[in-house]
Design brief:
Layout (H helix, E strand, L loop, with lengths): L6 H9 L3 E8 L2 E12 L6 E4 H6 L6 E6 L5 E13 L2 E11 L5 E2 L1 H6 L2 E4 L4 E4 L10
């Protein structure tokens, strides 16, 4: 076959996807922390981790969410809260989706909560300025 990469692989490669080392834990239980390599995925709303890992550290679902996959299919998955740290920035609670094995994604909701953004050219996370929209009076 003359095509070396699938269209999906080219899209991912051109988007500048990269991995970061994180620590995740059950909310209120930092001793349950596990180190996880996650793919930074600004196209994903929520952070996703393998369901087996979440169960291993004692995370329990709090509700279900309908989610649209990249192929357009809509699925329903369990959602929970975890603590997470990346590059010395930590968040006491962020949403996480119970995902399939081998899927560890750092989504935009968590990145915004950490005031971090993806620099896809340098393939790293960079600090951002958070906004408080107020008249200042």
């Amino acid at each position: 076959m003359w095509l070396k990469y699938s269209v999906a692989a080219l899209v991912v490669r051109e988007m500048g996807v990269f991995e970061v080392k994180t620590k995740v834990w059950r909310v209120g239980e930092p001793a349950s922390a596990r180190e996880v390599k996650m793919v930074v995925d600004t196209g994903a709303t929520y952070t996703t981790l393998p369901a087996s890992l979440l169960r291993e550290i004692g995370v329990r679902p709090i509700r279900k969410r309908k989610l649209r996959l990249a192929n357009g299919k809509v699925v329903e998955r369990d959602l929970a809260e975890i603590g997470l740290e990346v590059q010395g920035e930590s968040i006491a609670s962020t949403y996480v989706i119970f995902g399939n094995e081998g899927i560890s994604l750092l989504g935009s909701f968590t990145l915004e909560g950490l005031s971090l953004a993806a620099d896809s050219v340098r393939k790293e996370l960079v600090p951002t300025e958070a906004y408080l929209l107020s008249s200042g009076t």
